[in-house]
Amino acid sequence: MPNGNMDLISFFTRIPTKGELERVAKQLWALPLLALITSALPMVVLLSQIPLKNVFALLSLYAVVGLIHLDGLADFSDGLMVKGDVESKVKAMKDVNVGIAGIFAVVAVLILQVEALQFAPFYAVFLAELNSKFSMMLALAVKKPLGEGLAKFFMDRFNRGQFCIGVVIYVVLMAVVTFYDKTAVISALSLIVSLFTIKVALDNFKGLNGDCIGAIAEITRTSSLVLCAILK
């Protein structure tokens, strides 16, 4: 991060560093770079010869990124399953209690990731995290916040310049892996899933909040890992 600032790391990972939200908002362009940090430990685990390394790789990933996005996926799924108007769906999404739809979504995502890691190359974790972090930038770029909150705070400060820098970083990092393995670029198709999830969120909630962005990140990572597993 510029000038040694660790603000983005402090907010988007469980790594114990200090940061301020205003500086985080100015560093959103660096979200794709976070993939280098969040995928490092899981890749080491996958390169080891320990039993159930795919399970431990996923556990190590969540130890770094935390469970907040999984929680967002659960809330997002509960909101989607509600029949009725937008207000009813948003109310269900913001309910502190997790419903069966949320539980199902979280379990499905975890199983898909664990299974995919059995067959995907070790660097698929980096690609999945790269696509996941970039999908969050895509969500912020929509500029359609749902109510007040951190999502609106970041959207209000996320500008075209930050987005363009993020795109360049994403392309460069993807190109590096593609140079090593030409099929790696196919993982970028997971961004289509990201855009579809964003559309689903907008159709159902008429805006994006932190739960929606967390769900987008989780779904994108999962679809990226599945693509890498299929291609291997």
What layout of secondary structure does this protein have?
Elements: H1 7-12, H2 21-26, H3 34-38, H4 40-47, H5 53-65, H6 68-81, H7 86-94, H8 100-119, H9 124-142, H10 150-157, H11 160-180, H12 190-205, H13 210-231
Helix pairs in contact: 4-5, 5-8, 6-7, 6-8, 6-13, 8-13, 9-11, 9-12, 9-13, 12-13
Explain what the structure shows.
This protein is an all-alpha fold and 232 residues long. The chain is 72% helix and 0% strand. It has helices at 7-12, 21-26, 34-38, 40-47, 53-65, 68-81, 86-94, 100-119, 124-142, 150-157, 160-180, 190-205, 210-231. The longest helix is centred in the last third of the chain and has 22 residues, at 210-231. The model is unreliable at 1-5 (pLDDT under 50). The two termini are 33 Å apart. It has 13 helices and no strands.
